[in-house]
Amino acid sequence: MNQFLLTLAFTATALTGTLRGQTFEVASIRLSPANSNDSGLTVSIAGLRTDNTSLALLIQLGYDLQPYQLTGGAGWVRDLGFDISAKYDPAEDAALPADKTRSEMKEERLRARVRNLLTERFQLKLREESKELPVYAMLIEKGGHKMKASDNANGNTEIGGNNRSGSLRGSGIPLKNLTHTLSGMLDRPVQDATGLQGPFEIDLKWMENADGTGVSIFTAMKEQLGLRLDPTKGPVKTYVIERAEKPSEN
After folding, report:
1. Is residue 250 part of a domain?
2. Same domain for 61 and 161?
3. What is d(CA 102, CA 100) in angstroms, rounded to the nearest whole number?
4. What element of type H or E holds 55?
5. Residue 42 phi, psi (nearest 5)
């Protein structure tokens, strides 16, 4: 499973803020065959399909979390895979505004449906905690940032590769979206300390070789965006799995 799937830049709803009424009309859940090696998660216009996907990954999707934000639970929460086919009527989203807000609201509605599914079928119960963890503070380099302001009201982002080699291109990107994406790539929270808002045009490329030569993502940030990532510590919202049950198949 590509970890970048879970780095979509949407604000997570608090545990008490699950959208009411946002449920899948029908959901089939089955334990993946023991010999399954491939895994995948596909979002369509009217539903969600997973193949050999762990409960931990489903929680990350539903609550918009990175792996380091989720702890607790029995071994099966991360070891067992589930095949899920869940559908809803796309007409439910017909009244949403036809702009960027529509896309964000549709994504949050999907997350809400996943959260409700986890509660109903997996009997999931989470506890929120704040922990002091290693983070990166994103700051402006002394010479100033090099990003171009954008007037694109319908931002989009293209991401490819990993923290060793890849690219990140975007138009109309707020910095909160950039930090969210970087947090997934670097497996550590990236906290914006620039004071900037955006949106910006972003074109970032990096390629670090195994021997340390080349351009790391940290160097690319400095040279191409005029931003740096300083290692430090800070409060990070985390979640502990207090209860989870294997669902009955249907």
Report:
1. no
2. no
3. 5
4. helix 55-63
5. -125, 130
Q: Is residue 248 part of a domain?
A: no
3-state secondary structure 175-196: HHHHHHHHHHHHCCCEEECCCC
Q: Examine the domain organization and report whether 107 and 158 are in the same domain.
A: no
13 has a pLDDT exceeding 60 = no
Task: Indicate whether 105 and 56 sit together in one domain.
Answer: yes
**Quick one: tokens of 227?**
């931003």
Domain that residue 222 falls in: 130-236
Number of domains observed in the structure of the chain: 2
pLDDT in tens, 196-208: 987 899 999 999 8
**What distance in Å separates the CA atoms of residue 31 and residue 82, rounded to the nearest whole number?**
5
- Mean pLDDT for the stretch of residues 162-187: 87
CA dihedral 89, 92, 96, 99 (to 10 degrees): 0
Query: pTM of the prediction?
Result: 0.76
From the CB of residue 125, how many other CB atoms can be counted at a distance below 10 Å? 14
Based on the domain organization, do 152 and 113 belong to the same domain? no
Banded model confidence at residue 12, pLDDT cuts 50, 70, 90:
very low
Residues 195 and 207 in one domain: yes
How does residue 8 score in pLDDT terms, banded at 50, 70 and 90? very low
